[in-house]
Every structure is written in structure tokens, then in C-alpha cells.
Amino acid sequence: MTEKRWGLTIPLPGTVAEQRELIAELPGLGYTDVWSSEANAADAFTPLALASVWAPELRLGTAIVPVYTRGPATLAMSAATLAQAAPGRFALGIGTSSNVIVEKWNGIAFDEPYKRARDTLRFLHAALRGEKVTAKYDTFEIDGFVPAVVADPAPPVLLAALRPSMLRLAGREGDGAIVNWLGADDVPTVAKHVREGAASKGVSDPEVVARIFVLPGLDADTARGIGRRMIAAYMNVPVYRAFHEWLGRGEAFGPMWAAWEAGDRKGALAAIPDEVVDQLIVHGPAEKCREHIERYVDAGVTTPVIALTVDGDPAPMVRALAPR
After folding, report:
1. Domain boundaries of the chain, sorted by first residue
2. For the whole prediction, is pTM greater than 0.85?
3. How confident is the model at residue 1 (pLDDT cuts 50, 70, 90)?
């Protein structure tokens, strides 16, 4: 990873179709990547398929596709199709997602997430190379899947990870890790486990993609108010709570968790300290935001991906946040 990368999450606020001109403008602004997500809005693949035509210079990535909500073969087919349409420009990011998305929204049991991620990585590496797969994994069994679409080159597969075992798995059996909801000062703690995993197969520079939440152009009080709502929505999900306990924020988040569990939503928001919001949410003037994002890169992130939160037309802030 020698090229300096600068990514943006798509689709941006608004409808996908109306973003054609802005996405086409991204390479000229200095953006190298666009990365999608998949929760309760757009699916992960359609925005990237459009971007592959609108801005053929951009690298495309999913961050992430849940490993539970598509069958393994369907996931492989979707990835191979997009990788064939954009040769050498697509990276597949997968992850376990959360019990909320998997169980509550999709009615699928959120069982053995580590094993499911590991098994999916192993299956995908074979299927995306075009191999016939007949295998019994711990969490699913494949009987005679023959991929009829095979991209050349096969896309790299990255794994979303939060804590040490999954981070090492991302480096050991994946092509790198995708992380989010961490501060710039947390990056060395996280990245070292990815590097440890990658070192076991002789790789010294695994990719580390970080989705970074950015609220530009707002005064501090407004940005922190929005940021508190975003943080509370995630930090009360078990996997993110465990992540921040591991990072050492148990004491800082303790009052928020206690108020939330007591049903006091207003009190929970108020209990999130300003300094924690400032660590996890990039806000302020565009130049200050760029400097904050660069801190993630200096700390070990190879691909920063801006997740932009704005009211109204996102184009002015997309342009203002372009790399200098």
C-alpha cells in the first residue's frame, strides 16, 4: 500500500441517482476510493456498480457486507460480478455486522460470529479464485458450488474487526481489516493485531481501512449534540460496547450505559463526555477535519474513508474535505 489513499462513503445523503455528477468529480478532487455500507439504507453493491461507470478511476469497496444476510455462494457471485466489471479496482469487505442487523432486522440467528467470519473468508478465497467448492465448515456446508463468473484478478477480501482475535484473523486469513468507531489514538492498538496476523503469512503491510465519521462546518456544541446521538446508537450494541471496554473507555462510558439500561435516554446522551465525542467524531472547519483525518493515517490507517454527515447538499463539503 504505497499510494496515498483518501476514501469517501457512498451513497452520500440524498438519492443515489442524483449523485452521478459529484461522484464523477471525485477523482479530480483527489479521492481515490469509494466505499459502501449495508445496514438499513442502500445495499452494498448497487452504489458501487454505478460508481464504477460514473468514475472508472476510483477503487470500490464494501465496508461491509454482513456474512449472515447473504448465503456464501450469493455473496461470492455478487463480489465476482462487480470485480469482473471493475478489474483490479474492487475490494470485498465482509463482517459479522451486529445482532441488531442480523437478528432483529433480518431474522437470522447471530451464532458463532468468529467462526462464521473465518469460514466465510475461507470459502470466498476458494470461490473467488474459481475453484469448485465442496467443504464442510463449522458454520455451514457447501456441496459442489462451481463459480461461473471469475474475475481476473480476484478481489482482495477484507474483514471488519474490532477486538484482537478478529483483528488477527483479518490479517492472517484476510487481506486486511476494516475498522470503525475508533479514535486516531486507538489505531496503533488495533493495527498491531492486524499486522501480527499478517506476519504469520509473511505479509508486513496489510491494509487497514477506517471509516471515520465526519461532521464538518458545524459549531462544536451542535456537532457534539449530533455526535452523542450517533455514539449512543452504536455503543449500546454489545459488540461495540465490548470494543470500547477493551480500548479502555469503560469508565468514560459507564454512566451512559447505566442511564441507557435504566431507560433514561436523555440522561444517557448527556453522560457522554465531550472529550470522547471529540475522539470518535471528526468535526469543525474543513481544514481542521482534514488534519484530524490525517492523524488516523499517521497512526497506521492505510485507507481513511470519510463517512459524511451533513444537512442538505453534500457537494460543498465533499469538495472542502478533499485531500490537499
Report:
1. 7-217+288-320, 218-284
2. yes
3. very low
